[in-house]
Structure formats: C-alpha cells, structure tokens
Write a structure and sequence with these properties.
- By secondary structure, the protein is α/β, with parallel strands linked by helices.
- It has three domains: 171 residues, Molybdenum Cofactor Biosythetic Enzyme, Chain A (3-Layer(aba) Sandwich), CATH 3.40.980; 78 residues, Alpha-Beta Plaits (2-Layer Sandwich); 152 residues, Maf protein (Alpha-Beta Complex).
- It has 15 helices and 17 strands.
- The protein has a six-stranded mixed β-sheet, sandwiched between helices. Strands 14-13-15-16-17 form a five-stranded mixed β-sheet, sandwiched between helices. A four-stranded antiparallel β-sheet has the order 10-11-9-12, covered by helices on one side.
- β16 and β17 form a beta hairpin.
- It starts with a strand and ends with a helix.
- 37% of the residues are buried.
- The model has no long low-confidence stretch (mean pLDDT 93).
Length: 415
C-alpha cells in the first residue's frame, strides 16, 4: 500500500453531546503518526443507523485505512456492525471463542446474562478477530474492496490494548517500511505566544525538519517539534538539536516537555531540595493547594494550606495583625507578606506563599477588580511580593492568579 490515507470514525451520540471527549482519536493519531501513517480525517457520528452508514460510505471512498471506535456493545444503540453490514453486505456470524468468553464472564460473577450480550460476539465473515483482553467485545480487521477496516471498542483501555497488541503490528506488515514521525512538546510559562514567536521567528522560518509549531493554551505556551525521518534515533537527534537551539533563546521560561505539568515540576524540585511548602489562600479559595495535591507524592513536600477568605480568619487563624488590615486593607502588599510569613510559621514549612486580591465582580476596599497580590517567604528570611492586574471574569482572574503563583514558586525553586 503506497502512502495510505487513514481516518478515524468515532461512533456515539455521547461524543456529539459533549458528555465525553473524543480522546480515542487523538491517541490513535499519535500512535499511527510514529509509523508514518497519515490521518486525513476525524469524524464523529451519532447512534443513528442511516448516518453511520453514510459516514462509512464516505470514508470508504476517500481512505485506505478506516479505524472505527465504539458501537460494538450489546445495546440497541450500538450500530457499528449493522451499519457496516448494510454498506458491505458481508455476512455476520457468532464468534464462538468470543461467545464462550462472554458466557464465562457472567457465570464467574454469578450474574444472569441477558440475550442482547450475544451481539458482542458477532463478527464479519473472513475478518481477523482481535481478542479483547481487557473487555468483552472483540475487535475486528476487515479487508473489503481494497480497504482495511478496523473496528475497536470505544472504551479507551480496551481500545488501547487492541491497538498496541494487534492493530499496529498488523498495519506495519501491510505498509512496509515507512518514515517515522515523532513529536515532542516543549512547555513554557511566563511568556506570551506572540513574544515567544518573535524570539524564535528566524528558527521557525529556517526549519523544515523538525517542524516548529507554537500554540497557546489556557495554562502555558507550547512548541510542538515534529521530526520525520527513517528511524526513531534520527528523529530524537533532530528534535534535540532544535530543542537546544530554542532553549538557548527562551530557556528561562521553559519548564517541561510533553505531559509534564508545572505542579509536578514544583513537587519534584521541593523534594530534591528537601523543602516543605505551606499556602495561605484568600481569593483563590484553595485552588492552588488543590492543584498540588492532585499529584501523587505531594505529602512529602506539602504541610498544608489555610483558606482565609474572611477577614476574621486572616486575623484569628492566620494571625495577620489588625493594625496591618486597618492601615493597608486585606488586599495589599503588607497583608500578603504577613499571610505568607505566618502560614510558613504556623504550618512549620520552609516556604510560604499567599494569595489575596479582588476577583470581582465588585470593587473591594477601593481596589479595582483584578487587583492581586502574591507573596512568597522562606525560612531563611527571603521575601518577595508582586502585584498584578488581571482581566476577565471572576473565574478567569482566580485561575490566572493560581497559575501565576505556581509560576512564582517554580522560578524560586529552580534558582
């Protein structure tokens, strides 16, 4: 097969309604790209027989490899088999090994098997049946009219198991040697997309392999490096060369690659320096603490956090002096410093960070919406406080404050 065109069709109304995200297509695309299989289309179609048949018919015309996820379950709205049978006129039969596995599943759990579960064992005549080792419905590979159709369950862990163990080895056989495509994402914080692009514009303009694609997200700015070559080793070399060239310009803003998060990096650096952190959060209301405790192993480095939204809590629990509040207000540099210093002492930490400000929608203490103070203090006497003016609605201001706090922590810890 010469430079096959591939596409992915996800079947399921829940995807169209936004109840779940179509992460399957993203993951499959990434895997196939490593082997030079280009994905030309992603499609999502609801649980409607006529629409699924139409989507399959269009895919059959334009693509060499069609991967379908979902619609293989036992219920009436699982229509993938029915739609492909209507389009292809291929016979369907019950696959005895799959049926035995389904019966055994219910018997071992002492559950009555309803008749509709037999649907899951139905396969197309002449298909390659893929044993679903983590679920019940088998996958299938069907060669029909010079096209390769691959049917996979929609459950991500079942789909991934079948792709890794069966689908990729099969596709490698039929496509032969192809170019390897590999990507790496570089993550930056504290620099905007336009400024980043300006700093490395000549590198972007002069580079074709790897390609360099900047992209702004809600939490950071990324650069995706994508290399195409004849081996993973050469792809790694191309990516590393471009990466070092980019970091020589904007390395001060770099914090990680691929799926690495700022929270994980902070926790790793705290652990490496044998430091413990405490937080005092007013307008963020525990958001920053929550982000950190979502990472496994955080208990090694986080002593705790105090949500001090009310002024009385700042005074009575956190120990901010009444004089400071009367003179400067709770939304002030002085209050932020006391919050950070006191939470460090109260929770016996090495670093304390505090957040206070006006999230809106109303002005507070004469300070406009978006006014934020973030302070950091350390056990050895270091103090840093910064004022920010964030724009946006209440949630946007709180999210930007939390992100800026993580950035400040990361920059402090990488020194």
């Amino acid at each position: 097969m010469h430079q096959p065109k591939a596409e992915i069709i996800a079947v399921g109304t829940e995807l169209l309604l936004g109840q779940i995200a179509n992460t399957n297509a993203q993951w499959i695309s990434e895997q196939l790209a490593l082997y030079g299989i280009n994905i030309y289309n992603h499609a999502v179609v609801g649980d409607n027989l006529n629409r699924v048949v139409e989507a399959f018919s269009q895919a059959h015309i334009r693509s060499d490899i069609i991967i379908v996820t979902g619609g293989l379950g036992p219920t009436e709205d699982d229509l993938t088999r029915e739609a492909f049978q209507q389009m292809s006129k291929l016979d369907v039969s019950e696959h005895e090994p799959s049926m035995d596995k389904i019966v055994r599943f219910f018997k071992e759990r002492n559950i009555v098997m309803t008749p509709n579960n037999r649907r899951q064992a139905r396969v197309f005549k002449g298909s390659i049946v893929l044993d679903n080792k983590v679920g019940m419905a088998p996958g299938m590979i069907v060669n029909f009219e010079n096209r390769t159709w691959i049917f996979l369950p929609g459950v991500p862990r079942e789909m991934k198991s079948l792709v890794a163990n069966d689908v990729l080895p099969y596709l490698l056989q039929i496509i032969g040697d192809k170019a390897i495509i590999k990507s790496q994402v570089l993550r930056f914080i504290g620099i905007g997309e336009s400024q980043l692009e300006h700093e490395i514009k000549d590198i972007i303009d002069g580079q074709s392999n790897p390609t360099i694609a900047p992209l702004a997200t809600d939490s950071d700015v990324t650069i995706r490096l994508t290399a195409r070559t004849d081996s993973l080793e050469n792809a790694d070399k191309l990516i590393e060369s471009s990466k070092q060239q980019i970091l020589s310009r904007i390395g001060n803003f770099f914090y990680g690659t691929d799926e690495q998060t700022l929270e994980q990096q902070i926790i790793d650096k705290l652990r490496a320096s044998d430091k413990r952190l405490a937080l005092a959060e007013s307008l963020t209301g525990g958001m920053v603490t929550s982000k950190l405790v979502s990472i496994s192993g955080v208990s090694d480095v986080l002593t705790g956090g105090i949500v001090c939204y009310d002024t009385k809590v700042k005074e009575r629990v956190l120990g901010v002096s009444k004089e400071t509040i009367d003179l400067f207000g709770t939304v002030s540099e002085q209050c932020a410093i006391e919050m950070a210093t006191n939470v460090l002492r109260i929770l016996d930490a090495d670093i304390g960070i505090s957040f206070t400000g006006v999230a809106g929608p109303n002005v507070s203490e004469g300070k406009p919406v978006g006014t934020v103070f973030i302070a950091v203090c350390t056990k050895n006497g270091y103090q840093q406080v910064e004022q920010f003016k964030f724009r946006g609605d209440r949630d946007t201001i709180r999210n930007r404050t939390a992100l800026k706090g993580l950035q400040i922590l990361f920059n402090l810890l990488k020194q």
